[in-house]
Amino acid sequence: MPMRNWSNPELAKVAEMVTTWKEAYFSQVGPGEGWEVLCDELREEILEFIYPYVRKLYLMKVLEKEEFEAFLHFCDDSVEELRNMIKEKNYASEV
After folding, report:
1. Is the dihedral of CA 57, 58, 61, 62 positive or negative?
2. Per residue in 39-80, pLDDT tens?
3. How far is CA 46 from the centre of its chain?
């Protein structure tokens, strides 16, 4: 997924962090199946650390509603992209 240009520099840094986490989780994927649990772990990290911070930015009116919602979609998309990357890696190792 190409990195989106966020109008808020703070949000851009947080998005970069989410992308880095996604890549770090993917680097842990080994042979075989069952690695989809990493997607759940990424989602949990986002819910525990990222969501409260971004929500606070929204509540403090640092972010507009549209950008807040777009960022939440970005986080969901990042988790799904990790899931697809894992599936592709598993498929490639079977071939």
Report:
1. positive
2. 999 999 999 999 999 999 999 999 999 999 999 999 999 999
3. 7
Domain positions in the chain are 9-94
Report H helices in the chain.
Answer: 9-27, 37-45, 51-59, 65-94
**What is residue 33's predicted lDDT score, i.e. its pLDDT?**
85
pTM for the full predicted model: 0.91
CA pair distance 2, 26, nearest whole angstrom: 17
Q: Which residues, including other chains, have CB under 8 Å from residue 58's CB and lie 6 or more apart?
A: 65, 68
Residue with tokens 């972010």: 63
Query: How many C-beta neighbours within 10 Å does residue 51 have?
Result: 14
Cα–Cα dist 32/91, whole Å? 10
